[in-house]
Amino acid sequence: MEKNIFGLFSLMFVLVLMVSVLKIASYKAASDRLEDSLAASGLAASLIDIRQYGTDHSIIISDMEDAFAKYRETLEINLGLTNGVASGSSYIEGPVSIDVFRIYNVSGTLVTETAVSDEGVRQISEGVLGEMKAPNGQIVEKTGIYSEISFLLKSSLGKNIRAHKSKLTFVDTV
After folding, report:
1. How sure is the predictor about 106, in pLDDT bands with cuts at 50, 70 and 90?
2. What is the rounded distance in angstroms from the CA atom of residue 1 to the CA atom of residue 7?
3. Residue 60 Cα to chain centre, angstroms
4. Residue 126: enclosing H or E segment and its boundaries?
């Protein structure tokens, strides 16, 4: 009798362990997909000023509002959203909000940080290349876009958890 109980307990333990490992792997895959979606959307929104690049090879994002609109559009496509709301996602529940969208323009050693939102464009600060940091603590090395989104993450226990994901994407030429 004790052998049967021990065997049953061992089997249940292994099953619970396997389910836990699979759930962690699925969350990791979802996190990777979100990060890739943020990076791809940031690159799509990096609408550089071609005239400026042709003049002095500076990579500058000059139309901030257009960049924000392009980011929103491509994020919806990349995450499969409809009007900002997840539909049919295995891990996102409800609306996805763009909490932070900042453009970092680098000209020489000067970095200009600009925030863009539905309310418009506003310059936050200027700093020195190699010293200025994005909100996630990453040092700004080149012109780029930092974004942070939030959403409700579906959990396996039936309770949704507010989650955040951020990414600083640099623009470069090859």
Report:
1. very high
2. 10
3. 21
4. strand 120-128
